[in-house]
Structures are given as C-alpha cells and as structure tokens.
Amino acid sequence: MNQWINYHHLFYFKTIAEEGTVSKAAEKLRLGQPTLSAQLKQFEDTLGVQLFDRHHKKLVLTEQGKVALDYSKNIFKMGSEMYEVLHDRLKPLKPSLHLGALDSVPKQIVLQLVKHAFRISPCQISLSEGKSDELLRELTTHRMDLMVTNFLPTGTDGKGLYPKSITKKNVAFYGAPKFKALRKGFPKSISGEPMILPTYDSRLRQDLDHWAKLNKIELNIIIESQDISVKKLMAVSELGLIPTATHTVTGQVLRGELIEIGQLQGVSEELFLVTAQRKIENPIASKLRDSFIV
C-alpha cells in the first residue's frame, strides 16, 4: 500500500533543515516550537526513518535526511515552476543531469560525455569531481545521476550499481624527451627511475604493482596523485615517468612534450559509466549510459 506524504510536514522539514534549528524554523513559519517539533516527529514516524541526529541541541541531517532534503527541494521547485508555467510567466526549465567524474578520469573524456548529453537533449549539467568513495555515496543516495570512473567497487559496495564499459586501452609509460634513452632495454631500463603514479586505491596502481613484481622492476615513486592533469604536468616538467593510456596524452605527444617509453604488457585501463538502482531513473542518464562509447 502506498504511503501518502503530508506536504505540509515535508515543507516544515525542509524549513527546519535549511534554518538549522526548530526554533529558527518556528519563527520563520510563525508556528509554536512545540507544535513544529511534534510535526517533525510525526513526519519521521510516517516515513519510518530518522531525518536528524540531535547533538547538543543542534540538528544534523542523517544520510536519509540529506536524501529527503534533496527531494523536497526538487518537489517545491517543480511546484513553483508549475504555477509560473500555468500563468504563462515562465518557460519550463531544462531537464537537469548531475554527472560525477573520478579525478583520475581524463578531462577529454568528460568533455565528450557532456557534448553527448547535449546531443541527447538540451539540459542543465551539474558536474562534480572527487574520489571514488565520495562520488559513490552521492550516486547511491540518488544525489547524482551518472558517474564516470576507472574503478569499480566489489562485494556489497557494488550492490545496486549498473556499470557499462566505455573504453579499454593499453597502458604505457610516458616521459619527457630527456628520458628517451630508457626506450632501449625497456622495461628493465625504467627500474629505479623517478615515477609519478596513481594512488594505491586505484585499480591501475594495483595492476602496476603486480606488473612490476612480475618483471622485477623497482618502482621509485616520487609523487602519488589521482589527478591525471597534475600527473601530466609533472611529467612534462621532467620530474618523472607516468603510466597512462595513450588517449590521455595525445596532445602532449603531438607537441613533443612527452614520448612513449614502452608498453606495459597485460596492463590496461578501463573506464565505466555507472548508474545506481532507483525507481525513477533520469532519462538523459540512462540514454547516455546506453549510447556513449569512446
């Protein structure tokens, strides 16, 4: 049986969350504080979840509360838009798409993804970059529609996620022209040379460590970073070698800033588009996941 939501209670909850305390919300709504507290408790009972944690008389949104607040903002935003449209005051807003990208994903891939989304439908895109656990939290709590990543969680962390591979490329070591002599005798030649590697929580780094162990290569790590732009900048500045897929350094290679030192046999980098299970899926996100490929 479907549970009806009391939209007065939803509005009270939204106001409390935005004001930070029941007393401030009560003042804004011109309601008594005990009355508003009772309405909030009734709303939580109806939903069957706790929306706030109480800490030293302060209200802090729980994870469920954060999700409810996002939905409440959209609900009342759509209500205001409906009223304006019905009175010919406003054209309907463009559909929105919240896209997340791991900071290790090449910016060129993100650009292609954004362009493809615009070809699907005129839309307003919100773009977030960050670490895998941060973006996955946003995705699984439905605050994000789609995520592009080179790392897939396993076990329970990957439950309810729908990934699609969009590219898989071989990985090579690249460096400034001063490292050209290392081409001879590769891969033994790079043992002990300065390297700029991804952090250990990335799949590529784990594959690199395994490759180095098999080939008895000493990885002389001078810098660790997940940001591919930072790694390319460091490599161009002659600080060390970087392992990456060919398509991420095309511009630097064409300009002569970086050269390929050697291919890593058995090591590749795969990128995925990931959506999360939800009852109402963003139509642009689902079309993007189904049709986009590098």
Distinctive features:
alpha/beta, Arc Repressor Mutant, subunit A, D-Maltodextrin-Binding Protein, domain 2, 3 domains, two-stranded antiparallel ribbon, 24% strand, elongated
Q: What do these coordinates show?
A:
The longest helix is centred in the N-terminal third of the chain and has 24 residues, at 63-86. This protein has 3 domains: 7-86, Arc Repressor Mutant, subunit A; 96-166 and 272-291, Periplasmic binding protein-like II (D-Maltodextrin-Binding Protein, domain 2), CATH 3.40.190.10; 168-269, Periplasmic binding protein-like II (D-Maltodextrin-Binding Protein, domain 2). A 6-stranded mixed sheet has the order 4-3-5-10-6-9, with helices on both faces. A two-stranded antiparallel sheet has the order 1-2. Helix content is 40%, strand content 24%. The chain has helices at residues 7-19, 22-29, 33-47, 63-86, 107-120, 132-140, 203-215, 228-236, 250-254, 283-291, and strands at residues 52-55, 58-61, 96-102, 124-130, 146-149, 161-175, 194-197, 220-224, 242-245, 259-276. A hairpin with a 2-residue loop joins strand 1 (52-55) and strand 2 (58-61). 29% of the residues are buried. It is built from 10 helices and 10 strands. Helix 1 packs across helix 4 (63-86) and helix 5 (107-120) packs across helix 10. It is elongated.
